[in-house]
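Sat 14:20. Reprocessing the chain from the morning session after the first attempt stalled halfway. Input below, unchanged.
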Amino acid sequence: MKRLLLVLLLAAGPAFAQDAAPPPLKPPCDHLVQPCAVFEGWLVTEKIWTSATDPRTIVGARLQAEVRLKRWRWAVQGDATGVPGEYEQGNIETVRAITGYVAGAYDLWRFPGDVNFGPAFGVGGDLVIEKNADGEMATLPKRITAGIGVRTSGHGWWVYAIVGQNQAMPGVCGTAAWQIAINDRVASIGNVSVAASGTWTAKTGVAVRWK
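Finished this time. Tokens:
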């Protein structure tokens, strides 16, 4: 009887070991075969300079996503920002402005080190919720920001350079936007816009990943 139990235990051993083994790791998504999506959430602190007003600081949250398939990239980005000391994540009453953008790019050239470069376009705009002393919301010269240009990126960073129109400026305008990873959780972010009329605006800051 003891010998029979020993034989049964020895036979069942590999099965128990197989059950206890961790599941195999899921292979990474291959964008050359199927669409691959990346979602990110950030808490942001930025300072804004313009040619017409004094510098000011804003804080808020950013959600962005990118879908990559072969050489194509499709990205969306949305910001909700407010005044430091007032803004509370998830509390719509403390939001002063909402910004949303959609962009597409094609990695026409690829270089060593996973560096990509190619044509791009972008379209989006700001919704200013903050009211002035008369209780009126700010109005902007144009309905949207839009343009065509180029995109370059590498491991942990990307840069868009677009020429077209900026919602807050008259005439033709050039805009550059970037995100550069400092480490796994912190990135440098910003954008600069310069119009043919000579007006300009710049925004730089830091983003901390929360998702």
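The two ends are 58 Å apart (CA to CA).
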